[in-house]
Design brief:
Length: 189
């Protein structure tokens, strides 16, 4: 009698006392599974499945650290030199909502001849210049400003790749330029 036949016979004998057929079936499966794991299965019978190694979790890098990874930042954006007091734009600290901050970055980049930024690039610039952290998925909330005419989705080419970018529109520019802000304050005052 082979080892496998012996294991089956032992499992059958172990569950004979169980009267309920469903419970007997479950008990038989569990006993057999336990015995198969503790015994070597002879050749010619079902191969033993190796247990899977424990999963290891990876720590996620910040958007800036992933710049060369899947959320790539174009070289021209990496070298973009911005300051909180860009000429012609409202001061950064006067911006009260996230979408205005995102528009501010888009307009500052446009003034520096970069027409359109990806979610990851906007996140990267804000982190690099202002040390404020916005996940790229948060930047994607710009989509609610499409209907208000502030931004529009577009594509931009850099090298041999195309990127899905946000482009600022006239209404968005008005929100973040100093001239428009001064004119609005004069009308209110």
């Amino acid at each position: 009698m082979s080892k496998l036949e012996t294991l089956l016979k032992l499992a059958e004998e172990s569950v004979r006392a169980v009267e309920d057929p469903e419970l007997r079936k479950i008990a038989f499966q569990e006993i057999l599974r336990h015995n198969l794991r503790s015994e070597e299965v002879p050749s010619g019978s079902a191969p033993r499945r190796p247990s899977a190694p424990p999963r290891q979790t990876k720590k996620r890098a910040s958007p800036g650290a992933r710049a060369g990874g899947p959320l790539a930042v174009r070289p021209e954006v990496e070298t973009l030199d911005l300051s909180p007091d860009e000429p012609g734009l409202v001061p950064w600290n006067s911006l009260s909502t996230d979408w205005r901050k995102f528009c501010w970055v888009l307009e500052a980049a446009r003034q520096k001849k970069i027409d359109g930024l990806t979610n990851a690039e906007i996140s990267y610039v804000i982190d690099k210049v202002f040390r404020q952290s916005y996940e790229p998925k948060v930047v994607n909330n710009l989509k609610v400003q499409i209907k208000n005419g502030m931004v529009k989705p577009a594509t931009a080419k850099s090298g041999d790749r195309e990127y899905a970018v946000w482009r600022i529109l006239a209404a968005g520019i008005k929100e973040v330029t100093a001239k428009a802000a001064v004119a609005a304050n004069e009308r209110q005052g």
